[in-house]
Design brief:
The protein is built from 2 helices and 8 strands. By secondary structure, the protein is an alpha+beta fold.
């Protein structure tokens, strides 16, 4: 009986605290991708573009992207893309600046984040379950509808 209680408590504890952060660090040259993007736009103004990124296990993912505007007036050196993976199982939102990119994609209800690694050139990390300061409250704290 004692062993069943210990096993049950162990399983409950691991289920509650078992969601560890997964991450993978990869190299991506944004300047080179931007140059190829501009060259492609001059040659053939297509509607979709492709980019190859990685998942948290290091597996390469090909995304098909469409450029979306943030405002009526284009913002120089800022490209916002929305798209999906080639297998149509993941949807992505990606912001590309002249020297860096940020974004996230969603797969089976799990959100994965893509951002530069601090202090490293052309290195990016893709991760899930970010570390959050639980003391900080976000959103509308006292949102009462009357």
């Amino acid at each position: 009986m004692k062993y069943i209680l210990v096993i049950t408590l162990t399983l409950l504890f691991s289920a509650m605290y078992g969601q560890t952060t997964q991450q993978f660090i990869f190299k991506f040259n944004v300047k080179k991708w931007n140059k190829e993007f501009v060259k492609q736009q001059k040659i053939d103004r297509k509607e979709s573009y492709s980019i190859s990124l990685f998942d948290v296990n290091g597996k390469q993912i090909l995304f098909e992207l469409k450029e979306k505007s943030m405002s009526e007036i284009p913002v120089p050196n800022l490209k916002v893309f929305k798209g999906k993976s080639a297998d149509a199982r993941k949807i992505i939102s990606l912001t590309i600046l002249p020297k860096s990119m940020n974004g996230s994609y969603l797969e089976n209800g799990v959100q994965y984040f893509i951002e530069p690694v601090e202090g490293s050139c052309n290195s990016y990390q893709v991760y899930t379950n970010p570390q959050i300061d639980r003391k900080v409250e976000v959103g509308q704290i006292n949102d009462i509808i009357k």
